[in-house]
Amino acid sequence: MKKCTLCVDRIYNENLPEEDRVPACVRTCPTNARHFGDFGDPNSDVSIMVAERGGFDLLPEQGTKPVNKYLPPRPRRKSVDQPMSLLAMADAATPKGFWQWMDNTLEKLG
Known about the structure:
The chain has helices at residues 8-11, 24-28, 45-53, 86-91, 97-109. The protein is mostly helical. The termini are far apart.
């Protein structure tokens, strides 16, 4: 197995649009969990994100000085104090979320 090259051929390819000049793993990540940028620039998107979210090195005691940072999970949204009732959601005058999608889909089907 070869070591990752960060798709250097993509990053410096001036024939590609700016948004495509990132490693393939970053560009194709379906959950947008990977980010790429310059930690040397304190105003870059990744530097700001790491500073705001408290990014950290993995296993710093190894002394490898990695260039990757890991971000802690985002805080969970506060839940509603009332228990959810799927029947109440389905009977609501204006359905939301899944029920709205279901309602729109069934209307399209006739």
